[in-house]
Every structure is written in structure tokens, then in C-alpha cells.
Amino acid sequence: MIPFTKAQACGNDFLIVAEDAARETDGGEPWPDLTRRLCARSTGIGADGIEFFRWTGPTSGRIRLHNADGSAAEISGNGTRCVAAWMAQALNSRPGDALQISTDAGLRVCHVNTIATSGSYTVEVTAGMGIPAFAPRTVVLANGFAISGVDVSMGNPHFVILADNPGFTIRGCNWQTLGAEICVHQNFPHQTNVEFVRIVSPTEIEIRIFERGVGPTTSSGTGSCASATAAIALHGCHSPLTVVAPGGAQTVTWDHPGAELHLTGPAALIARGEAW
């Protein structure tokens, strides 16, 4: 049996599994297979991915993320925040405490802002998300349409597209269809996450997300960061910037290009159990 905790951040849900409980060696199930099986919405527990965790120190840990389709990913901002909430409960953390989480995109330091224990154990976390890299780019689709956007790296890849309407359509195409094509476009040999951004005001944007290895999602932490990067650097928005996704709002603080970007939002522990 494999113990797990299920957590969610703005509706982006993850299973947290200790590495020791899911060993791939000695005949254990490979993590990609295990992830596909447990994350299946109808036949498994259901999640957008699994964060495989091990402690590395009294207040530090190492995570490895697999998306729902089994593919490995460098990092998830929301997944990292979910792990921070899990660590906070395990350590009986208090507001002001800092937790260090190593990812395949580097070290992320998560600061505990508030903790609520009525109902779900919910932690508001501010996470250092690294220094974003960005550059404008144009992608030509199979139908010949040229789609302009911004390549953003948050330690994982993103392509951010500006939309000028509440339906997030681009040249009459719905964002889900465009996201599916761009995600696997030949310009992105390792695939990419795709965000569609509508500017509401200089301090607020609304986004839709097509996530690599998952599909449309209610939220994305790194997607919120990438969208904010493009909006602040190239489209006249200001920090702190509220980023509203279908699953809720997060706040991005970014002083200037070349500085570390910070993401603030909630994460809640919602279930524990054991899986075969």
C-alpha cells in the first residue's frame, strides 16, 4: 500500500507521495506508470500530478514531479506550494517560518504567511520562483496562422499569448484547441505550457491555461508567473499583479527583469489515504 496526501492550490490538485513508499527499484512500479494510474479521474484517485517527496533536512525537502500523463516536469508552482503546506503541517510550522524545497528547476524557498485549521488545513505561502527569462516569439500553426506570444522560462517552459476578449479566442479559434496544438508544436521539442492572458487593468490579469502533460487546468503557479512576466515586461502592467484563473487568484510580485519573482497564494490539504 502507498500512503498519499491529496492537496490543491486554486483547484490544481496533486498527490504527495514519499519516495520511500513508491520505490521504483526491487520490482516497484515505475513512477510514470504509477502516476498515470493514480491520477486517472475515473479509475484512480484523480489529480493533475504526483509530487514524490523526501526529507533532506529539518525544514527542507526534495520533490520530483510527474504530470498526470506520466511525463516528468521540472516544477509546478502550485505543486510546490502544496508540498509546502504538507511540510508545514508535518512540522507544526507557524507564520513566518521558511521551508526549503529543491526541485528539478532549482531551490524554491517558501515562506508561511498564514495557517487556517478550520476545515481543510490551508496555508498561504509566498514562494520565491527564480528569475524569469523571456523573449517574444511567433509560432506558425498548421493552418498557416502566425501566433505571436512570449517565450517565458520559469525553470519550465511557457508560451504566453495576449487575448483581447473575455472568451480568450485568438483569430476566431478557441484557446483549448490552440493550446493543444501549440503545446506539442515542433518549435517546442520538449513541449510547452500555454497561457492565454487578458489584461483587466494595470494591476490585474485573467488567464486560461493549457498545461503540458495535463491539458486545460483551473490554475497554474508557474503559468501565473509566466503570464505576469509577459504582462509586466511587455504589456504595461505593474507589480504586485493579481492573476485570476478559473480556480482563483494569486499574486505575483516582481520588481524588475533580472530580479527574482515571488508568487503568493493558498494551498490546502484535502484528503489522506492509501493506494494499491
Q: Can I get a quick summary?
A:
With about 280 residues, this protein is an alpha+beta fold. It has 4 helices and 17 strands. The protein folds into 2 domains: about 1-130 and about 265-275, Diaminopimelate Epimerase, Chain A, domain 1, CATH 3.10.310.10; about 135-260, Roll (Diaminopimelate Epimerase, Chain A, domain 1).
Classified in CATH, the superfamily of the largest domain is Diaminopimelate Epimerase, Chain A, domain 1
Beta fraction of the residues? over 45%
Mean pLDDT: 96
What is the number of helices? 4
Say how many strands there are: 17
Q: Assign the CATH class of the largest domain.
A: Alpha Beta
Q: Name the strands of the widest sheet in spatial order.
A: 1-2-3-4-6-7-8-17
Largest sheet, strands/sense/barrel: 8 strands, mixed, barrel
The secondary-structure element order is EEHEEEHEEEEEEHEEEHEEE
Distance between the termini: 5 Å
CATH third-tier fold name of the largest domain: Diaminopimelate Epimerase, Chain A, domain 1
Tell me roughly what share of residues is in helical segments. 10-25%
Radius of gyration: 18 Å
Structurally, the number of domains stands at 2
